[in-house]
Amino acid sequence: MSNTSLSRSAPSASANAQSADALRKARFWDQTARKYASDPIADVVGYETTLERVRHILTAEHEVLELGCGTGTIALRLAPFTRTYIGTDVSSEMISISREKLAASPIPQLSFEMADADGEVVPPGSQDVVLAFSVLHLVSDLDYTLNLAKRALRPGGVLLAKTPCVGEMNPLITRLALPIARALGKAPEVSLFKAPELEAAMVRQGFEVLSVERHGIDRSKDFRVFTVARKPA
């Protein structure tokens, strides 16, 4: 994994492979970070609906970890409603942009650190909420990352995830457009699971799934699933 004061690799026989995956992901997102930061939000209604939903779950006593925070846009919106908020991302360039934004609009309880969602980021049982927005389809091992998220949570803590279920997209995209884009270095590697498979993975890792929602204008066509899952008390 790239150097970070926060990240500690979870025990695994495949630590070297995880490190190589982290470096590969970091290189891709470092190259695209500035463009990513300038791209408009594709689904503003769904985005705002999700943020409002999360804001009403968070409290001023919550300690929050965000996996794959990107350029920090969501963290800057939600951190004021928490006790502490750590935004993490595998990309140093994403974290640099996040810190630039934070310097321009300081929020005392918010910090950004470079760390991979496929690695153990904080001490076990230290967080009340783990947020994962548009990242679970990008991790190397979904079950492994979900297990790490559960380890980070205190008993009764919640995982709030909004995940593109790429397997629900048009097959022409998943079978043709995505492979070509990946071959050209224009898209990252993604997992093609659907919403039931995501929920099943959460259950396998010991979460109690409380809610599965779709927040887009046309919810029947919204493949970005918002999930609330709780670690047993």
Structural class: alpha/beta
Rounded mean pLDDT is 91
The Rg value, from CA coordinates, equals 17 Å
The N- and C-terminal alpha carbons lie at a distance of 32 Å
Beta-strand content: 15-25%
Spans where pLDDT lies below 50 across 5 or more residues: 1-13
CATH superfamily membership = Vaccinia Virus protein VP39
Number of strands: 7
What string gives the helices and strands in order?
Answer: HHEHEHEEHEHHEE
Q: What can be said about the biggest beta sheet?
A: 7 strands, mixed
Write down the CATH topology. Rossmann fold
* Helix share bin: 25-40%
CATH class: Alpha Beta
Total count of domains: 1
Biggest sheet: strand arrangement: 3-2-1-4-5-7-6
Corresponding CATH architecture: 3-Layer(aba) Sandwich
Oligomer: single chain
Shape: globular
Question: Could you walk me through the main structural features you see in this protein, from its secondary elements to its overall organization?
Answer:
The structure is a single chain. The chain is an alpha/beta fold. It has a single domain (15-165, 191-230), classed as Rossmann fold. Helix content is 38%, strand content 21%. It has 7 helices and 7 strands, in the order H-H-E-H-E-H-E-E-H-E-H-H-E-E. A 7-stranded mixed beta sheet has the order 3-2-1-4-5-7-6, sandwiched between helices. Strand 2 (84-89), helix 4 (92-104) and strand 3 (110-114) form a beta-alpha-beta unit. Helix 1 (15-38) packs across helix 4 (92-104) and helix 5 packs across helix 7 (195-204). The radius of gyration is 17 Å and the shape is globular. It starts with 14 loop residues before the first helix and ends with a strand. Mean pLDDT is 91; it is low at 1-13.
